[in-house]
Amino acid sequence: MMFSYQAVSPEGAVIKGKGQFNDIQALMDALSSEDLILLRYKQQNIFIMDELEKIFLPKIVRLDIVEFCESLSSMVGSGLPLLESIESIKDTIRNKRMKRALEKVIADIAGGESLSQAFAREPEVFPQMLVFFCNIGEETGTIQEALKNTAEHLKKLDDIVSQTKRALIYPAFVISAMSAVMIFWLFFVLPRLVETFNEMDVVLPDITRNLVSFVEMCKQQWYLFPVIIVLFAAAIYMLRKNERTHLLLARMYFRIPIAGDLLKYSNLTLFFSNMSLMLRSGVTLTKCFEVLGTTFRNPAIKSIVERLKRSTSSGDSLFTAFSQAEFFDAITIRMVSVGESTGTLDERFTFLADTYQERTTKFVDVMGKMIEPIVMALSGGLFVFIVISLIGPVYDLISQLGGG
């Protein structure tokens, strides 16, 4: 529930505030923890307005959480109390969604809940990985390290996503531009040229006549295109809702040339980065796989994690489990074997995470260079098609006029 209130400080200053609290007692407990005395309050019950306001609040990006974790880790490491540190950070944040979430976190902590429990109450803002590592930090007394590790993990995740998006921006832009040019020529330039050719009794080549027939059909049956798009989207949605077909589609993505390799490398970077981070924090292998199962959304990766968990739980070694997964390459399996035999799994996984991160970066650069000639070839093919089908008759007309 949302409360607006007025409270008085020990110095006699009247302080106005607003925040989310479970009830009036939670509000009083939160103020008492700050040595404030409640003067008056008002409960706001405009549920619809609150929900509408939530929709239009600015989104929170990963770097917002990274900055928050780094700031909180630094303050806690310098000896400041946790609640005071979060309040100081809240006052400097401009994102309203983040600010409101921190107000709720402060209220929950003041009410007696732990930091991880307070974060878990705001799943739309604070990721599951942050909740998990804060829980470990609270149990082991290393909350500063937990916040720092979470920030590093989210930075790496943001780098991978940024690299992937950067690799796809250029081809997406060129394909969009080519499509726009094609539509402009077909539906605006072609009809006018055809009218001119017919008036001057110019014989059109077969490719141009077929193109004109196709355009006319598209104009007459335009309603079929949105219907096809809706049906296609509905079919994809139904396939994704079914677990078996969704898993099959996810596995097929990894077999797509170029893009499949990039998808695999980026997922393996996150996989081994998470594993090394959890093992360094003292988490058991079984618990690692449980957390990974909730971290990844890709059903193919989730099925591999579940298979590894079942195999290791039944007594198989990690080397055997990775070998039977039929997803990891020989270098990965060898590193797992070395780490398991020497007791340095966290170091081996860190090495693998760095290796796949480097592969991802290089692959993005190479993919950009590979895509450029493909896009140029497609652009050239489109230009040749336009010349043959549209501009060719123009030259015929000019030749006839010149000959006449």
The helical percent reads over 70%
SS-based structural class? mainly alpha
Helix and strand element order? EEHEHHHHHHHHHHHHHHHH
Mean of residue pLDDT?
A: 78
Overview of the structural elements:
With 404 residues, this protein is mainly α. The chain is 76% helix and 5% strand. The chain has 17 helices and three strands. The chain has helices spanning 24-33, 47-56, 62-77, 82-92, 96-110, 115-120, 128-140, 143-199, 206-220, 224-241, 243-253, 259-280, 285-295, 299-313, 318-324, 330-342, 345-403; strands at 2-8, 14-20, 37-44. Strands 2-1-3 form a three-stranded antiparallel β-sheet. A hairpin with a 5-residue loop joins strand 1 (2-8) and strand 2. Helix 3 (62-77) runs antiparallel to helix 8. The protein is extended, with a radius of gyration of 30 Å. The mean pLDDT is 78.
Give a brief outline of the structure:
The protein is 76% helix and 5% strand. It is mostly helical. Helix 16 runs antiparallel to helix 17.
What's the structural blueprint in terms of helices and strands?
Elements: E1 2-8, E2 14-20, H1 24-33, E3 37-44, H2 47-56, H3 62-77, H4 82-92, H5 96-110, H6 115-120, H7 128-140, H8 143-199, H9 206-220, H10 224-241, H11 243-253, H12 259-280, H13 285-295, H14 299-313, H15 318-324, H16 330-342, H17 345-403
Antiparallel strand pairs: 1-2, 1-3
Helix pairs in contact: 1-5, 3-4, 3-8, 4-5, 7-8, 8-12, 8-17, 12-13, 12-17, 13-14, 14-15, 15-16, 16-17
Q: What are the key terms here?
A:
single chain, 404 residues, mainly alpha, three-stranded antiparallel beta sheet, 17 helices, 3 strands
